[in-house]
Amino acid sequence: DTEVTQTPKHLVMGMTNKKSLKCEQHMGHRAMYWYKQKAKKPPELMFVYSYEKLSINESVPSRFSPECPNSSLLNLHLHALQPEDSALYLCASSHVLRTTNEKLFFGSGTQLSVL
Amino acid sequence: ELKVEQNPLFLSMQEGKNYTIYCNYSTTSDRLYWYRQDPGKSLESLFVLLSNGAVKQEGRLMASLDTKARLSTLHITAAVHDLSATYFCAVDRGGNRDDKIIFGKGTRLHILP
Question: What pLDDT, on the 0 to 100 scale, is given for residue B113?
């Protein structure tokens, strides 16, 4: 299994809603990432988890709350988002010790629209 | 701070032609990635380049890495319409750190039939 699975694929939410994005992988990767990508822009790193602990937070607003309940799962909890948060949210995973030809495996993303 | 610059940012070319996309980065890195992204889709890994002088080829795409110049190139040979996509290079320092992987702005490649 070389897939990173993200759900839902599409999400529309209001500014007062609470929702969660989910990401799952079964490749034994212990590093997991959230990226945000606006249209026609590169992916921007949000969070990195290493061995289920948050290791990098790129100054992301607190309305985004990541969670890594176990080595296969990564969640992104959303609360009180703004319309400018509308974007494609990509989850990725990799081995922490990135030797040889290790790479990031990306999920298909969640297209989020905040109304 | 690690910065990654790609050029050109947009490229329109005829089928059958050759062209090169360039990726420069600002600090020492021992790992460079090339990704492809189709509109509305996720990122597909093309190449991982690990060492100075590394060259990898897959079909009509060939990537190379010069760590001394902090430069990677993605060369397209005899382009075909199916290669139309956005191509990103990305850089990290790899090794034993769960480090940031920083993306360039991407090159939107449009191949005219």
Answer: 84
